[in-house]
Specification:
Blueprint: H1 2-16, E1 48-50, E2 61-64, E3 76-81, E4 93-94, E5 100-101, H2 104-109, E6 126-133, E7 142-149, E8 154-162, E9 171-173, E10 178-186, E11 209-215, E12 227-235, E13 242-253
Parallel strand pairs: 6-13, 9-11
Antiparallel strand pairs: 1-3, 2-3, 4-5, 6-7, 7-8, 8-10, 11-12, 12-13
């Protein structure tokens, strides 16, 4: 019996002695197991990926390209284990798939390397602006995030409200106390004008789903944020399909109350 217990303890000590590689931007949790890992697995050989006709990584890895070049000029990368946990900070990075991610870790967690570009580019003619209205007479504070696409002559408005005990309908991560009310899309880019703000628009379609996240910080003494970051996917009926709202540092206009913004 003592021999069995001793052998069991040796097995635990051996497992705990293996080094753990932390992902930059991670939460400190160990990375997922990787078929290309070399530490603590008996000296396996790293697997190359990308490049001309190169192999792809498995579902627990992403292809890490040197210099965040996304395999430009058929450059090869190395299959690297995806991180298991990431911090909540959201400076914003662009993935090699052209999508917006909050940080490097969240891109790697999704199986994507990051691009050397500082931001994902929207189609030409797409702009963002946000309008804030403080609540009055028991009405909640409201934020409108406008996406204007002049090329498609289209306006998309995401409407947020500061709730009391009500819960949001859509699965969107927001600062505490806020929820998505609805989203609207019209075939008129001018509907997104906020100076002066429109008296109200008739949406062409209501969304079937809204997912993603919005983040902002409010400076001391201010009632509203000065800028916000949006990473939201809105699904409308078939005629319009899926609209992605992805931008960082969107200016928040607040003509209804005094506050200081840089």
């Amino acid at each position: 019996m003592r021999i069995l217990v001793f052998g069991w303890l040796l097995g635990i000590l051996a497992a705990c002695s293996n080094p753990v590689k932390l992902e930059p931007g991670g939460s400190g949790a160990g990375g997922a197991a990787s078929s290309s890992a070399t530490a603590g697995d008996g000296g396996g050989t790293p697997v190359a990926c990308g490049g001309r006709g190169g192999p792809t990584c498995d579902a627990t890895e992403y292809c890490d390209h040197p210099g965040d070049t996304c395999g430009a000029d058929d450059g090869e990368g190395q299959c690297t284990a995806r991180p298991e946990g990431c911090r909540d900070d959201c400076p914003g990075v662009c993935g090699c798939d052209g999508r917006f991610y909050c940080n490097e870790c969240s891109a790697h967690q999704a199986g994507v390397d990051v691009s050397e570009d500082t931001a994902c580019m929207e189609p030409q003619g797409v702009t963002y602006v946000t309008l804030y209205m403080p609540g009055q007479d028991h009405a909640p504070d409201v934020l409108w995030v406008h996406r204007t696409d002049t090329g498609a002559d289209q306006c998309v408005i995401l409407v947020l409200y500061k709730r009391d005990e009500r819960t949001g309908v859509y699965d969107v991560t927001l600062p505490e106390g806020w929820a998505v009310w609805t989203a609207e899309i019209t075939d008129n880019a001018e509907d997104c004008a906020i100076d002066p703000p429109p008296p109200g628009i008739e949406p062409s379609e209501d969304p079937t789903d809204v997912t993603g996240s919005l983040q902002w910080e409010i400076a001391p003494g201010n009632a509203a944020p000065c800028t916000l970051d949006v990473d939201v996917t809105i699904t409308f009926p078939e005629e319009y399909g899926t609209i992605e709202m992805r931008a960082t540092g969107v200016a928040v206009h607040n003509p209804y109350s005094r506050h200081e913004c840089p």
